[in-house]
């Protein structure tokens, strides 16, 4: 048993990373890995431990995702997650390492699509090994991964050079917001910039619209705490921002860039509006 435990511990980090990408919850990922260990102790030795554990964890995660769907969980609702197995700061770091935009997009996929994409595109598992996990043929598993890949990557009508420029402006805006850097915010915001927001995104009584670089910059400094959980993403084909504590979407910023400055941005928090957006991972800076 000691030898088996040692072999399992050597796989734990990889399995946790796999499960976290499938579930988007560190606590649930740890539970899935623990379940794999319990099943291994009952199974004893296996021929290919790494492959066997990957299959078991994937099946456990698939069951969890299907259960979520059956309960009709709202994908855009910020739901506090149990932290029995992890501290909040640790989960923040985990979300940062994976990428918040990717976690948001994965959360919008169907269970089978998510499993197929994570296994193949992120962990290089061949389709003939993915197929039994999903109870599909390899061809069907390949189609699921392809459909998920299209949603994850997204497309933009902007030329690549313009998309990359917009990304640089948005990144500069986020960096300044995180640091509460008023001087840099004034540089990146257009003089007549406009900030609009859903009422749900603002404190009671706050203005739904603010105009002018200084007024917007001063307000954006308050956004600094949320900016820690923010990342650039493709929003309906344009560069915008997702705010996703622990990888769960809470806000979206749609951003209008003119030249090298932010001309306007809107903070979207209404669940119906969030659900109508097409969010994808931006690869313009990669």
UniProtKB/TrEMBL annotation:
Q: Which residues form the RNA polymerase sigma-70 region domain?
A: 7-69
| GO MF annotations, alphabetized | DNA binding; sigma factor activity
Which InterPro entries does the annotation name? ECF_Sigma-70_Domain, NTF2-like_dom_sf, RNA_pol_sigma-70_dom, RNA_pol_sigma70_r2, RNA_pol_sigma70_r4_t2, RNA_pol_sigma_r2, RNA_pol_sigma_r3/r4-like, WH-like_DNA-bd_sf
Its keywords, alphabetically, are: Sigma factor, Transcription, Transcription regulation
In this chain the RNA polymerase sigma factor 70 region 4 type domain maps to 101-149
- GO biological process, any: DNA-templated transcription initiation
Q: Which family does it belong to?
A: Belongs to the sigma-70 factor family. ECF subfamily.
Per UniProt, subunit arrangement is:
Interacts transiently with the RNA polymerase catalytic core formed by RpoA, RpoB, RpoC and RpoZ (2 alpha, 1 beta, 1 beta' and 1 omega subunit) to form the RNA polymerase holoenzyme that can initiate transcription.
Which PANTHER family does the UniProt record give? ECF RNA POLYMERASE SIGMA FACTOR SIGI-RELATED (PTHR30173:SF43), SIGMA 19 FACTOR (PTHR30173)
NCBIfam families linked:
sigma70-ECF (TIGR02937)
What name does UniProt use for this protein?
Answer: Sigma-70 family RNA polymerase sigma factor
Native source organism of the sequence: Amycolatopsis eburnea
Q: What is the lineage of its organism?
A: Bacteria, Bacillati, Actinomycetota, Actinomycetes, Pseudonocardiales
């Amino acid at each position: 048993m000691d030898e088996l435990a040692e072999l399992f511990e050597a796989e734990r980090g990889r399995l946790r990373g796999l499960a976290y990408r499938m579930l988007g919850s560190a606590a649930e990922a740890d539970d899935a890995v623990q379940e794999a260990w319990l099943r291994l102790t009952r199974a004893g030795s296996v021929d290919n431990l790494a492959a066997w554990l990957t299959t078991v964890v994937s099946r456990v995660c698939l069951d969890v995702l299907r259960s979520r769907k059956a309960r009709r969980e709202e994908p855009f609702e910020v739901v506090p997650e149990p932290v029995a197995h992890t501290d909040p700061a640790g989960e923040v770091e985990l979300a940062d390492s994976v990428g918040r935009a990717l976690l948001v997009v994965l959360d919008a996929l169907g269970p089978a699509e998510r499993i197929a994409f994570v296994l193949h595109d992120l962990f290089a598992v061949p389709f003939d090994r993915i197929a039994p996990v999903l109870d599909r043929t390899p061809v069907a598993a390949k189609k699921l991964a392809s459909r998920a890949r299209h949603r994850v990557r997204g497309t933009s009508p902007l030329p690549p050079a313009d998309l990359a420029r917009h990304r640089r402006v948005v990144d500069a805006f986020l960096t300044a917001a995180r640091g509460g850097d008023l001087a840099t915010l004034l540089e990146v915001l257009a003089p007549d910039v406009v900030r609009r927001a859903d009422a749900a995104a603002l404190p009671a009584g706050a203005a739904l619209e603010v105009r002018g670089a200084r007024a917007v910059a001063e307000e954006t400094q308050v956004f600094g705490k949320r900016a820690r959980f923010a990342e650039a993403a493709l929003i309906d084909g344009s560069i915008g921002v997702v705010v996703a504590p622990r990888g769960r979407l809470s806000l979206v910023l749609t951003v209008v860039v003119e030249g090298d400055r932010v001309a306007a941005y809107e903070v979207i928090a209404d669940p119906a509006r969030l659900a109508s957006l097409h969010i994808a991972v931006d690869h313009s800076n990669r």
